[in-house]
Amino acid sequence: MLQKTYYKTKDYCKVKFSFQPETAETVQLLGLNSDWENSIIMSKKKDGSFSAEVNLPKESKHEFKYLVDDTLWVNDPEADSEVPNVFGGSNSVVAI
């Protein structure tokens, strides 16, 4: 799930990424700002969900995926859209 908070006086939007896999020890968020090498470690909640908050520039689009337990790449089913990737699959997109 994506939750966006816009600010009138700021040039960015705060985006909260929330993801609830069936089972997982770790979830990482990758791809934002075209950075597929440096992950954002998502915080695990008591209910088993994971979340992270990121500030992203207004009027921009960002591809991303979740990496579950360092092995499984997963798209966000509630992302704004999906686009094909070079591996024959797709990436989630968040539009600000």
Description:
The protein is mostly beta strands. It has one domain: Immunoglobulin-like. The chain has no helices and ten strands. The strands form two sheets. Strands 3, 4, 7, 8, 9 and 10 form a six-stranded antiparallel β-sheet that branches. Strands 1-2-6-5 form a four-stranded antiparallel β-sheet, with no helix packed on it. A hairpin with a 5-residue loop joins strand 9 and strand 10. The mean pLDDT is 95.
* Overall number of domains: 1
Specify the CATH homologous superfamily: Immunoglobulins
Tell me what portion of residues adopts beta-strand conformation.
over 45%
- CATH A-level architecture: Sandwich
Average pLDDT confidence is: 95
Q: CATH class, please?
A: Mainly Beta
Please, how many helices?
Answer: 0
Low-confidence stretches: none
Largest sheet: 6 strands, antiparallel
Overall helicity: under 10%
* Separation, N- and C-terminal Cα atoms: 14 Å
Spatial extent as radius of gyration: 13 Å
CATH topology group:
Immunoglobulin-like
Blueprint of the fold:
Elements: E1 2-6, E2 12-19, E3 27-30, E4 40-41, E5 43-44, E6 50-57, E7 61-68, E8 72-74, E9 81-84, E10 90-95
Antiparallel strand pairs: 1-2, 2-6, 3-4, 3-7, 5-6, 7-8, 7-10, 9-10
Keywords:
96 residues, Immunoglobulin-like, 52% strand, 0% helix, 10 strands, globular, mainly beta, single chain, four-stranded antiparallel β-sheet
